[in-house]
Design goal:
single chain; about 240 residues; alpha+beta; Structural Genomics Hypothetical 15.5 Kd Protein In mrcA-pckA Intergenic Region, Chain A; Alpha-Beta Plaits; nine-stranded mixed β-sheet; about 20% helix; elongated
């Protein structure tokens, strides 16, 4: 038995918070009866309808690795008519991005309709590694690197310890290339971390998300995950 809002989210219909709103609004039925109680639990044999749509409990999950290009919104839709990451995937299934990358950030992005895996990967307790390569205006000093590694305050919050390595330096252009591996996913985190030491990110790419990289996948292209990759991702969120 699982909570109704969790089942709705895991089936990819909407987020858990949205599911709770729909339940409270009387737009969800279980076995033909409206449900308003958020604590309601359902079994696999129960028939769930959301806004008149019967949810398929035997859902086939889809998993896609996208090499996100610049100038694409990490969202399911955009009220300004801009292209989204979902527009780049050829599927009729309602998929959504796991976490987000900024409009001008490129690289690894996972999209799926598997709510359980998505929620597990973005939950702070998962500690999933995210590796970024940043082109920085200004040259990081040894002291800057030490501050970033040990945690630095952004938006009133101190970031967790992370890996930071200066890969190359261009003294003429006053720029450097930096590798940063974080375990969190706060809004604009890498950019704000670099700004906190007085420098500026001018280009950012996520090279790795958990075990996933964009090796062999061109910008704007995608591929399906293998069964083995999905199994490894699940093992990462179920490690505890």
């Amino acid at each position: 038995m699982e909570r109704l809002q969790k089942v709705i989210a895991n089936l990819g219909y909407c987020s858990r918070r949205k599911a709770e709103e729909l339940i409270e609004a009387g737009k969800v039925t279980v076995n033909g009866e409206k449900v308003f109680e958020l604590g309601t639990k359902v079994s696999k044999s129960d028939v769930i309808e959301v806004e008149g749509i019967t949810l398929d409990r035997n859902y086939n999950y889809e998993y896609y690795l996208l090499n996100k290009p610049r100038g694409v919104i990490t969202a399911v839709s955009d009220d300004k008519g801009r292209k989204t990451v979902v527009d780049l995937i050829n599927t009729n299934t309602r998929i959504y991005p796991v976490g987000r990358l900024d409009y001008d950030t490129t690289g690894v992005l996972l999209l799926t309709n598997d709510g359980e895996l998505a929620n597990g990967l973005i939950h702070p307790s998962s500690g999933v590694d995210k590796t970024y390569i940043a082109k920085v205006e200004g040259i990081l000093t040894g002291y800057d690197v030490k501050r970033l590694r040990s945690g630095i305050v952004i938006d009133g919050y101190k970031t967790k310890k992370c890996h930071v390595k200066v890969k190359s330096v261009d003294k003429k252009k006053n720029r450097c290339i930096v590798e940063i591996v974080i375990h969190e996913g706060r809004n604009h985190q890498v950019k704000k971390m670099i700004e906190a030491v007085g420098k500026k990110v001018i280009k950012l790419k996520r090279e790795r998300f958990a075990i996933l990289t964009v090796d062999g996948v061109k910008a704007g292209d995608y591929r399906r995950l293998t069964n083995k990759e999905v199994a490894v991702l699940y093992s990462m969120i179920n490690k505890g």
